[in-house]
Every structure is written in structure tokens, then in C-alpha cells.
Design a protein that fits this description.
The structure holds two protein chains of two kinds.
Chain A lengths: L2 E4 L3 E3 L5 E8 L8 E6 L5 E8 L4 E4 L8 E5 L4 E6 L8 E8 L9 E4 L3 E5 L2
Chain B lengths: L3 E4 L2 E4 L5 E7 L7 E6 L6 E5 L3 E2 L7 E6 L2 E6 L9 E6 L11 E5 L1
Parallel strand pairs in B: 2-10
Antiparallel strand pairs in B: 1-3, 3-8, 4-5, 4-9, 5-6, 7-8, 9-10
Classes of the chains: A mainly beta, B mainly beta.
Chain lengths: 122, 107
């Protein structure tokens, strides 16, 4: 059974750094892209970026380029989303996702993690 | 970037009635279109991919159609568990943007 298990909720102050994680299981981790989706409180879904865990190639949505960093460690089947300096506007639920098809990101995004709630407040 | 526009923003429907949701792409996405359902406090769930193929475990009261720029999701007879927010998403181009969502609420 494919599972994406995300790290627990975080409460941070503005200016702090943060790295949240997403561990994949039940499939060959390096063969499937992993994506990150943001959902601000009461709002819709926004695509942030993706990574190929096999070679660490990344792609970012223009809105998130330079704002976050996506990485992966295929030896432990884990992808990461990282901020170097959080803002209050980063308060949101963050989901990691995996597509239906292998070795492509032009595929329906079938599997979703349970979400990590990040709260940034002074 | 391809812009996805959903209508209406909110749909008020009585249980047992039919609901029809629309999604429009700013340029052709072929049939590379998915629909998701999201209930409060839950992660989105994939309902439909390739514009009209139901994902595993999705009941047949959910159907979808369309190609190119115009797409429709139909729920034939709304059950209590179907009241939720529905999103369309294109995956034909980068980034695979979502529509803004349609909330299906109880009338």
C-alpha cells in the first residue's frame, strides 16, 4: 500500500527556518516525482513545486521560486520542504503528493500525505 | 501558465438531486484533467483522471466529461457524504494548476 506520511504540525516565529518532511512507503521511492501543495486557511490548493527523488531534479511554480526549497533523500525515502526565513503569510497546510504514473509529472496526482500544518506567529 | 476557472463558486443542492460542476482551461489541456474532492479537515481525494476515468473506489454516481478547454463533473444523485469542495486540476502543462474550487452545499 502506497503511503505518504508527513511530519507533525509546527509552530514557528517569523524569521525562523523550518524543514518539513514526507516519507514514502509501499513503492519504489526514486521512480516517482513528489510534489508539494499549499492550502492557506479557508483557501484553495496551490502548486508549489516538485522533485524527482532519483536525481533530485526540481521544478518550482513561479510564485514559489526562491521562496522555498525542495529536496529529497532517496536513501531514506523522504522528501523535504524548507524555508530559510518564515513569514506570517506562510501559515498554511502543506501536502506532499505523488502521481499515478512513474517517472513523469504529467500525470494525475493520486496519493496525498495527511498534511503538515505550519503556523507562523510572533 | 494555464489558468483553470471553475463555476459556480458555490452550488446549493438537495440530497438526491443532480449536481453539475464546470471547469474551463485558458488553453487546451487535451484530456489531462483531474477532479478532486476535499472534505473539511481532510486531504483532497482524486475522483477522476484523464477527464473521465474514475479513480479506484469512486462510486459510479460520479461522472465527468470534456476535453480541450471545457470540462464537467456530474454527481447524479447527491449523498450526504458528497457535500464538499471540488477542484479541477490540469496536468498537461507546468505548473499543474488547480481551479479555485466549487463548494457543494446542502440546500
Amino acid at each position: 500500500e502506497v503511503q505518504l506520511v508527513q511530519s507533525v504540525a509546527e509552530v514557528k516565529k517569523p524569521g525562523e527556518s523550518l524543514k518539513i518532511s514526507c516519507e514514502g512507503s509501499g513503492y519504489i521511492f526514486s521512480r516517482y516525482w513528489i510534489g508539494w501543495v499549499r492550502q492557506m486557511p479557508g483557501k484553495g490548493l496551490e502548486w508549489m513545486g516538485i522533485i524527482n527523488p532519483g536525481d533530485s531534479e526540481t521544478k518550482y511554480s513561479p510564485s514559489f521560486q526562491g521562496q522555498v526549497s525542495i529536496s529529497a533523500d532517496k536513501s531514506i525515502n523522504t522528501a523535504y520542504l524548507e524555508w530559510s526565513s518564515l513569514k506570517a503569510s506562510d501559515t498554511a497546510m502543506y501536502y506532499c503528493v505523488r502521481p499515478y504514473g512513474s517517472e513523469t509529472y504529467y500525470s494525475a496526482w493520486l496519493y496525498w500525505g495527511q498534511g503538515t500544518l505550519v503556523t507562523v506567529s510572533s | 501558465e494555464i489558468v483553470m476557472t471553475q463555476s459556480p463558486a458555490t452550488l446549493s443542492v438537495s440530497p438526491g438531486e443532480r449536481a453539475t460542476l464546470s471547469c474551463r482551461a485558458s488553453q487546451s489541456v487535451s484530456s489531462n484533467l483531474a477532479w478532486f474532492q476535499q472534505k473539511p479537515g481532510q486531504a483532497p481525494r482524486l475522483l477522476i483522471f484523464y477527464a473521465s476515468t474514475r479513480a479506484t473506489g469512486i462510486p459510479p454516481r460520479f461522472s465527468a466529461s470534456g476535453s480541450g478547454t471545457e470540462f464537467t463533473l456530474t454527481i447524479s444523485s447527491l449523498q450526504s457524504e458528497d457535500f464538499a469542495v471540488y477542484y479541477c486540476q490540469q496536468y498537461n502543462d507546468w505548473p499543474p494548476k488547480f481551479g479555485q474550487g466549487t463548494k457543494v452545499e446542502i440546500k
